[in-house]
Amino acid sequence: ALAVLGAAADRDAVARAVARWRADELEAAVVEHNGCAAAMRGLDAWRQHPQGQCVAAEPLLHRAASGGGARPAWRISRQRPLQGLRVLDLTRILAGPVATRFLAGFGADVLRIDPPGWEEPGTVPEVVLGKRCARLDLKSVEGLATLQRLLSQADVLIHGYRADALARLGLDAERRRQLNPTLVDVSLDAYGWSGAWRGRRGFDSLVQMSTGIAEAGMRAKGDDRPVPLPCQALDHGTGYLMAAAAIRGLTERLATGVGSTTRASLARSAQLLVAHGGLLEGGPALAPESAADWSEQIEATAWGPVRRVKPPLRIADTPQSWDYPASALGSSEAAWRDGSR
């Protein structure tokens, strides 16, 4: 972005440089230089935008059966229904990690893979609860071979990289299916799976700008600046949709022996929120924090003792619990846990 603007890394200098551009032209220029940017659009402008129309025509989740083979064993218990299942986590902030954290809460062996040196300061302690975190250099022969072995032994793959990232490593959808015919494959992108923006980089805050949510918040508050939602609602909502898709894929595989592919997008989740959420008309004020919002347990994380906010949902008679506290990236070996299937 700074290269496009020709500005120093200074807030005022950037503001002056941005003021010389049309919003949509600056957005296009940053994207052309492999950056992330979003011009603020209104709800009607997004509905009329070619990409908005493509997203509106897509299903909430793209689902398809794929592959097949012997039905993998899965002994389901009421208390830990996902125990023994292997979930390969190739995700980033925040939707994908929310999905895999949910699956870990019901017993899944979740193994997160990151490259050497990668960090997500400030968010890792929130999203790695219950997971083991390993590092692999996927540009090396050894690292890629290890990933392929993990993938061939996984029950679920959840990935949130750019749509072509795994294909560039030689792991496109067809190759993943060859390695693991019964895989439950769940993926995410920012701006939908059709249209000119289908491969565009993005994240929750940008999608709120593009789809009219931040502009609607600005109007509702009578402000003169974008007002996004008070949390990364698209990320969290899409994350739970992805977790539900993984569980649906597992139950179908248990019945039929057939794997599946599911694709979600932040932009399509935004459309769902706009269509059904009263948030954009102002809505009720946020409730004040209370002691009932917090878990009773103290978690011994790699960063010290913490108390978490309680999970936002529950399943009757099946409590969520996590086998591991939040741990630093790269703190585990890139291998499945003994005892997982």
Number of H- or I-type helical stretches: 14
Poorly predicted runs are none
Mean pLDDT, nearest integer? 93
Instruction: Report the radius of gyration as a whole number of Å.
Output: 21 Å
Strand order of the largest sheet: 1-7-6-5-2-3-4
- How many distinct beta strands? 9
User: How far is it from the N-terminal to the C-terminal residue, by CA?
Assistant: 46 Å
Q: Could you tell me the strand content as a percent range?
A: 5-15%
Structural class: alpha/beta
Order of helices and strands: HHHHHEEHEHEHEHHEHHHEHEE
Q: How is the main sheet built?
A: 7 strands, mixed
| Helical proportion, percent range | 25-40%
Tell the overall outline.
Answer: globular
Quick take:
By secondary structure, this protein is an alpha/beta fold. The protein has helices at residues 2-5, 11-18, 23-32, 43-48, 50-56, 95-104, 124-127, 141-153, 165-168, 173-179, 204-210, 213-221, 233-256, 266-276, and strands spanning 62-66, 86-90, 109-114, 131-135, 156-159, 184-189, 259-265, 299-301, 304-306.
How are the SSEs placed, and which strands pair?
Blueprint: H1 2-5, H2 11-18, H3 23-32, H4 43-48, H5 50-56, E1 62-66, E2 86-90, H6 95-104, E3 109-114, H7 124-127, E4 131-135, H8 141-153, E5 156-159, H9 165-168, H10 173-179, E6 184-189, H11 204-210, H12 213-221, H13 233-256, E7 259-265, H14 266-276, E8 299-301, E9 304-306
Helix pairs in contact: 6-13, 13-14
